[in-house]
Amino acid sequence: MNSGTPHARYKDVIAVLIVFSSPLFIACIWYHGTAPDGSAKRYEPIFLNSLLVTTHSDEISDMYGEIIASDNRTWEKKAKELQSLSNPRSRNDYAASLIYLGRYEEAIQILLALDKDSEDKSYAVASNLGTAYELSGNNGEALKWIEEGISRDAESHFGTEWLHKAILKAKIEKRDAVFGLTDPFDFGVPKPLAIDGVSYEPKEVLRAIVYQTAERAAFVKPKDPLIADLFATAGNIAANEMALEPAIAFFELASIYGHPRAKEIENWIPKTRKDIEEAARMRAIKRNLMWGAGIASVVLVIAAWIYFKRAGRSSAGA
After folding, report:
1. Are 142 and 168 in contact (CB under 8 A)?
2. pLDDT, one tens digit for every residue, the chain (318 residues)
3. Which residue of 95, 191, 234, 311 could cross-link 110, Cys pair, CB 3.0 to 4.6 Å?
4. Residue 252 DSSP code
5. Which helix or strand (DSSP H or E) is residue 314 part of?
6. What's the CATH number where 96 sits?
């Protein structure tokens, strides 16, 4: 895994990922944002189970309860609690703790033995083996076990492991991108994106990117071109499907993770923020003019009514 330091100008809070996933949908919550053409646009954030905030100190916090700890002491404590337990679930969880501690080979041996001895082939064991192999640098074995995990439970991870497969294949083929959009700032009609001959709707891709990057953030630090590509793709989809405001957060992360067009992204972000402010100002002026015209119309109607009523009285008096 690559490591690095985020850009200094984002040292307080790098970005906020709004997490979308229909299985844990919170209904009837809407935000108002700005479409790429400057018009007002409502969008619906579909929260998974967290709002992921990445800070300059590489802390990763889950703001909805469960904490993904970067402090090894947390995992060391959990590993000690589980080490002496022999039931399959505890052995799996012990191996997972070792993965967080960077003790990948130990975790792999425990998980392989667990999978061999178990009649009930566990999805968790296969998935953890895939992760441990990937983090140890063996992407071929990682892909094998991620595919095995999908065969055991295709709906786990909210059905987003197809993207994990795609990431591993890109790494094996030494590609720097999974989707590799020609122009991430091409905001047009959203089109399905294809991976391994399967087409996925934009919102489905966005949900998968957010889920998979949220999980990987504990292990993958900037700079990483594959993750940068995912964030840029998410930014493009968010701008098309939602609004520019959430798209900015994704593009910020794409820049931090070393997207090849980082300089363009860094120029695009402040310009877009100004465009959003200007669009909001123009919409406010338009609303005020409409209110003014409406009030003026009401005043004219009342004035005309008073005039004709008085004119009628004058005619009657004559």
Report:
1. yes
2. 444 444 433 333 333 443 433 344 344 555 567 778 777 776 655 433 333 333 322 333 333 334 344 457 777 888 888 888 888 888 999 999 999 889 999 999 999 999 998 777 889 999 999 999 999 999 999 999 999 999 999 988 888 999 999 999 999 999 988 888 777 777 766 678 888 888 888 888 988 998 888 778 778 888 899 999 999 998 888 888 888 888 888 898 899 899 998 899 999 888 988 888 887 777 677 666 676 677 777 777 777 777 677 766 666 555
3. 95
4. H
5. helix 262-317
6. 1.25.40.10
